[in-house]
Design goal:
Layout lengths: L2 H9 E3 L3 H19 L6 H7 L2 H28 L6 H4 L3 H12 L11 H29 L5 H4 L4 H36 L3 H7 L1 E3 L1
Antiparallel strand pairs: 1-2
Helix pairs in contact: 2-4, 4-7, 7-9
């Protein structure tokens, strides 16, 4: 073993377990696919590539994938390894506020797992995704008479269908805003602590 390899082995530890990493990147792919197959932002591109039926199928299955991933993350947040657990990165409002102030003044301490602000963002992202998926299932069941909730929504009024649609679109767009905020936070923290957080979510390892 080379001297460099020995040094790396000693100074880096595994923080993100394989299931957390798989969850993270699969969630990214599923959300991007779901958003791009439904959002008006990509309407012209979609029309050139796929028919409406294929788009609907891709959107629905991306949504089901998101639902399964969210269920897994909820369970893993209680039974997974240390840094995957909610107890490791859910902090009180005062701690989060203090950390944000420290980040803005470039005095924030480094955390191996999610920092207080990042932990809050993760929770809000998961909740927003959960509402997006739920309203999507409600809309799908009420409008198309399909999906696991179709039996409960078969006689939905036009007003109810419109509400489900608007809520679904709102939270999908809200999630995009959260993702942008998350990315800004990752870049900021990477520069502040001089480490590549995106790489860490691929390798699972961070500087000890």
């Amino acid at each position: 073993m080379t001297e460099h390899a020995s040094s790396t082995e000693i100074t880096e530890i595994t923080v993100w377990d394989p299931l957390v990493r798989l969850f993270h990147w699969t969630l990214v792919i599923a959300f991007v696919l779901a958003f791009c197959t439904q959002s008006e932002w990509f309407e012209e591109i979609r029309d050139r590539l796929l028919s409406g039926e294929w788009l609907q199928t891709l959107h629905v299955w991306a949504g089901y994938t998101l639902a399964g991933l969210l269920l897994f993350r909820l369970i893993w947040g209680f039974v997974g390894p240390r840094y995957a657990r909610f107890s490791d990165f859910v902090y009180g409002p005062r701690t989060v506020f203090t950390y944000v102030i420290n980040v803005l003044t470039l005095r924030a301490p480094r955390h191996l797992g999610h920092n207080p602000a990042g932990g809050l963002m993760i929770i809000i992202l998961l909740l927003s995704l959960a509402v997006t998926v739920t309203t999507g299932l409600l809309w799908y069941g009420a409008d198309k008479g399909l999906g696991p909730l179709a039996g409960l929504l078969v006689n939905s009024s036009d007003d109810a269908i419109e509400i489900f649609e608007e809520l679904h679109e709102f939270f999908a767009n809200f999630t995009v805003i959260l993702v942008i905020g998350h990315l800004i936070g990752v870049v900021w923290e990477s520069l502040l602590h001089r480490e590549n957080l995106a790489r860490a979510m691929i390798t699972g390892r961070k500087r000890a």
